[in-house]
Amino acid sequence: MGIYEELVERGLIAQVTDEAKVRELVNAGKATFYIGFDPTADSLHVGHFMALCLMKRLQEAGNKPVALVGGGTGMIGDPSGRTDMRSMMTNDIIDHNCDCFRKQMARFIHFGEGASDAMMVNNADWLRDLNFMNFMREVGVHFNVNNMLRARAYENRMAREGGLTFFEMSYMLLQAYDFYRLYCDKGCNLQFGGDDQWSNMLAGSDLIRKKTGHDDAYAMTITLLTKSDGTKMGKTSGGAVWLDPEKTSPYDFYQYWRNVDDGDVIKCIKMLTFLPLEEIRPMESWEGEKLNEAKDILAYELTKLVHGEQEAEKAREASKALFAGGGDSANLPQMTLSEADVADGIGILDIIVKAGFAATKNEARRALTQGGVTVNGDKVDDPKTVYEKKDFADFVLKKGKKKFVKVVVE
RNA sequence: GGGUGGUUUCCCGAGUGGCCAAAGGGGACAGACUGUAAAUCUGCUGCAUCUUGCUUCGAUGGUUCGAAUCCAUCACCACCCA
């Protein structure tokens, strides 16, 4: 079975421009493919994860990955967000974010000079100095507005109240131009992207054909990983699930996957883990309580991929200790209070807020009033409860069903 | 550029002088039930020194005993016409 067939069986491929050609190319390890990332934050998140996995798979099969960061497009930002200040991104921040991306990506794919080694490019290199007149003459003429408006991506936005700005429309030209440049400069012959990018990607292939007369630049989209209720994967109440351990701890990362819906587990294992398909197939018939095992496998495998085996073990141990009893409690998520914090005793509400389990003391009070707060397994129902230093020799705070933290004083 | 309508607490959205910390829904959070799932039911949802106090309804200023509600100016947004 070739890599292409494997991708299909894992449910990763949504659409392809020329299936036969792409299969041949990819299976032979002759593709130089690119995927774009917008550097809107200083860490990649779960939404990017699938793209990373795909790059890794293809690289292992001998293909050459090109990671494109949108330093040029990211400069302007997506204007569809309302009052957000995404346009405030300066070159420094973008460059910093690109650096962070590269470091994180290096965990998955190998960068270097070899034939199948990955390279990273920044579209700022060609977009920032673009001359509008030249661009319109060389690229703009090849785009037909009637056709563009027929694209799904635009159709939706046309119906929306705010309408569609010229910038948003231009995005397609910029992305198409990226592909064209990479095709000419780096020999890039395949573009990957989320399924929502399909029309932009096609535009790239079209542009290359129109400008060069060559018919060998292909596009392929990845199935968007959505939950069974249709919402995006990787969002929690606290925001995105990050790959950076400073922003989302390995324990929280593990827990995120441990808690996916029943209907999403197998799909996630197939799409995101590197377990061989032979091992996954039997799991597809699992149901009911048995699925919890699959969730554990999913959580463990992904934590291992992102944070390493050691962290994955720790997260698993901590989870066992908290939920199943018996695991090693040494690995629980921990919070440190200073001597000064506890000098005069510290109220339970303050501890909850400090632990990040509540944004305000009112919120902490609410959880407590409703019986959702325990310390070492004992329910705390008086919001005025005060703890002193000696109490923290052994202190595990629990809020709600799933939030635990071990509190220590240093 | 002209005309009209709008800006309300996390989101949608009611409120058009006191009964408004502000209906209803969604989401979030907590409880029950469970499998660390889903569905369902219940509670809860501005802040705090919490039977009380303080600060909110685009911004500023004004009218009034009293304003989210009335007036003025400004800012922003949407729709229609150019």
Report on the structure:
- By secondary structure, the chain is of the alpha/beta class.
- It contains 19 helices and 15 strands.
- The strands form four sheets. Strands 1-6-5-2-3-4 form a six-stranded mixed beta sheet, sandwiched between helices.
- Strand 7 and strand 8 form a beta hairpin.
- The longest helix is centred in the middle third of the chain and has 21 residues, at 166-186.
- The protein binds one RNA strand of 82 nucleotides through residues 82-83, 161-163, 228-229, 237, 255, 258-265, 288-292, 295, 319, 322-324, 358, 360-363, 365-373, 383, 399-402.
Beta strands, count: 15
- Alpha carbon gyration radius: 25 Å
pLDDT average, as an integer? 88
Q: How many distinct helices? A: 19
What structural class is derived from the secondary structure elements?
A: alpha/beta
